[in-house]
Specification:
single chain, 403 residues, Growth Hormone, Chain: A, mainly alpha, 0% strand
Amino acid sequence: MDTKIANRWLVVLGSIIMQLSLGAIYTWSLFNKPLIDKFGWDPGATVFTFSVTLASFALAVIVAGRIQDKIGPKKVAIAGGLLTGLGVALASLAHTPLMLYITYGFIAGIGIGAAYVTPLATCVKWFPDKRGLVTGIILAALGVGGMVFKPLILMFIAKFGVSTAFLYLGIIYGILILIGAQFLVVPPPGYKPEGWTPPAPTAAGGVSAYNFTTGEAIKTRQFYFLVIWMFFGAAACLMIISVATDIGMKMVGLSLAAAGNAVVTISLFNAAGRLIWGAVSDRVGRTRSILFINLLLFGAMLFMSTASMTYATFLLATCVVGFCFGGLASVLPTITAEWFGTANVGNNYGAVFLFYGVAALLAPRLSVAIGFESAFMVAAAACLLAAAVTFLAKPPAAPSQPA
């Protein structure tokens, strides 16, 4: 299993198994009220666990990307599975927010990041002919994961209590990730799918014939285009995702149950976006897809900041946000692989993904600090700027070539 695999789609199967478990990261809101009810913690301190998890997740992607490029994805994925399971299970012992930050936030977050980057980096090497589609399939599983585990989480909380639920979930997450990791095998050097001829690099697009190191990548302006798209796009989306229920209650006047439906629709469209945008970008191009995503986000943010929303339009706006969030997660790693080569894609995308963590730390706090309407206006302007950047984007030249 370490040196060969019978069918490259088995790599996709293993990746899907892993991503379904990792997608549970976006179910955190299900734990907030039970934890507050049990321990009497401050709501803000409890919700901050989600930010710690995402920040640790982003940090781990950088480190894991570098390591998996050297020792292979399977070992890194196994380590990620062990840390994810351990961190979530140890959260069952937490009696203070700080203990929760260390266990579920830091340990599990590091594990999730390590496991997350390995399927992406492996599959783009097996599927040079279908990078966008396969990336979309894998990341769609991440979006679906939250929906798959939601009823199980609620059942565990209701039957055993929130602390014991962490224990059981940690065991389940860890086992599934370890199973999926067994399928992560890199293709042999020079691998090409049968009947596929690599397209020649062009000024307008194509696959880079040169494999950039991260040090070389960060010296290009294209790297900072990716940073802008990641940071602004993720900040706008997480600004909604992290407090979707609160937005529905405060801005639309919905009940908790009605506003909570936004979590479900965001998950659905997040998964759909990860799948659909990958296939769309194969047809219309990566940067054009980023342009469309940012224009959709601009419209959604502007609408939410200025319009009097109804229940239906609130859900529609959050669906757009989820759809675009999935699109960014699908298209950005593919652009990274095509612009900077596949040899160091884990490390290079990790450097870009760091700014997802920065967005996760800043965006939810900004929306609370300056108010939802003002925060959405800021996000709308940022998305418009990110859209404008696409008109400047083209693949970087290799270091030995003129810029």
